[in-house]
Structures are given as structure tokens and as C-alpha cells.
Write a structure and sequence with these properties.
Elements (H helix, E strand, L loop, with lengths): L2 H13 L6 E4 L5 E4 L7 E3 L3 H25 L7 H13 L6 E3 L11 E3 L6 E3 L3 H27 L1
Antiparallel strand pairs: 1-2, 3-6, 4-5
Helix pairs in contact: 1-2, 1-4, 2-3, 2-4, 3-4
Amino acid sequence: MTDEELHEIRNRCEKATGEPWILLYFGRNEYIIQTAGEEDLDIIGATEADYYFIADAKQDVITLLNEIENIHSNQYTLNDNELEKIRNKCKKATGGKWTAYIEGRDIECGSSFIQTAGEDLEITGATVEDYDFIAHAKQDVILLLDEIEKLRSQC
């Protein structure tokens, strides 16, 4: 991966509502994601695995970006089990490429959703930047994990 690609991923992550993002379970398949923002994220169309993946995505992306920096300075902080745990969350989430469709800059006034290979995800409480981050998170996590494996194999 290029430095520019890594910067784009970090930038998307930093623009999204602050962390931590914490999954709250209310029983009977009712979840919300609590963020440091003014509103929690409620997702229509998400599977349980999607909720777990999205709730951890901010922390996981930051962790993976930091690990790439650590590898460049010959320091590993994550073990194989930790990397596999992140990869498994990504694999369990609805497959395919996730794409954000954001109508205008004001989500509340438009028809905004994230298209997946499963149901479209509609998120209440999300900013435009949250939509952008979540839509890219699945691909970004895979790219970052693959980059870590590549860098480790070169050492």
C-alpha cells in the first residue's frame, strides 16, 4: 500500500464520529452503537455480525494502521490471534463490497444508505463522514490486514 492510501484510510477514520464505538445489546436482536457523538447509531438491515463489525471498525482500523507503522520500525504489537480475530469479524459481516449512497450533504433530508451484498443498511444518527467510513471499513480492514501480512513476510 502507498503512503497516500494509508493516509486516506486514516483520514476517513478520523473524520467519522469519535471513538470509542461500543455495541449495546438490548435483547431480542436489538442493538445500537454508542459513539462519542451526540447520537447513537441505529442500523436498519444489519445482521448481528454487521453490528459487531461496525462497532469495532473504528478501533480496529486505528489498531491496524498503527501496526503498519510499528512494523516499519521493526516492532510488532499484535499477535496472529489478534489479527485473526479482526479478520473473522470482517468475514462474518455481510459479504461483498459496501458502497455508500449519500444524497446531498444532509443525511436527514436525503435517501442515504450503504449497499451491501445483503440488505441495504440505513443508519440513523450517522454523519456523512460516518457513512463514508462505514462503507469503506470492510475493504479497508481487508487491505490493512493483507498489508500487515505482506510486511511481516518481508521481515
